[in-house]
Amino acid sequence: MTPIEERFPRPSVMGIVNVTPDSFADGGVNFEPSDAAASARRMVYEGAAIVDVGGESTRPGADPVSLDEELRRVLPVLEELTGGLPVSVDTSKAEVARRATQLGAELVNDVTALRAEPDLAGVVADSGSYICLMHMLGEPRTMQRNPSYDDVVSEVKAFLEERLAFAVGSGIPEDGICLDPGIGFGKTVEHNFELIRRLDELTALGRPLVVGFSRKSSLGKLLGDADATTGPLSASIAAAVTAYERGATILRVHDVREHVEALAAAQAVAG
Ligand code: HH2
Predict the structure, then answer these.
(1) pLDDT at residue 214 above 90?
(2) Residue nearest to atom 15 of ligand 1 (CA)
(3) Euclidean distance between CA atoms 154 and 150, whole angstroms
(4) How many CA atoms lie within 13 A of 75 on its CB side?
């Protein structure tokens, strides 16, 4: 296996393709498989290193989706894309990951970090795919009801360290694992910004970090709308660039071209 940090050099952009009717920022836009495939192709053309195809919204308040429904949503898109396009699958379900990796998905993005279905670890190990392990406090339906931590960064770090050990213990090579603090998953606005401010404490785990701040409601709330459910592109780009400067490797975004351009400038500054 090529180590994930060689396959995705810093910074790499992961384009988001939600094959859902209800995702918080782009629900419905890519619900038709042909629309989703076209968006994915455009994102790669615009410079995405990989596109993340998901069939279940994990926005605050979202209800889970059945296995059959999730397969019905993502398989037609993956059938159109894989072989030609670098694809990851955003799923917590072992069966979805198994079918997706058979179709060529090279990364499994599990927002539950192998807690929803621990069998997913074996699927990833057997398929030789990469995996992203993300932190979430609680579950999507209720996670934004007053999330609280003594110290958000050290608690997220301890969680990711434990999940990394679980994944390695389940046979997934450490070289193939990246970690994600889970912006917006059981976190207040201040928790999210503190995680980026102190991102060096998470890079100390020695694995590449994924950060997904794109269009998230904390950005809209920061700008004065207490009831925001999304945030603007401009603030998304600033959050991605500052995360990159603090050590993030993969930036998970809706607006690929704008992020690729901004990160090119930030990378030129970094030298
Ligand atoms: N955010 C979302 C979904 N999956 N995966 C990772 N690794 N990191 C993230 O920050 C992350 C994620 C939520 O964003 P989106 O996919 O646009 O929305 P929805 O869950 O409503 O489909």
Answers:
(1) yes
(2) 23
(3) 9
(4) 11
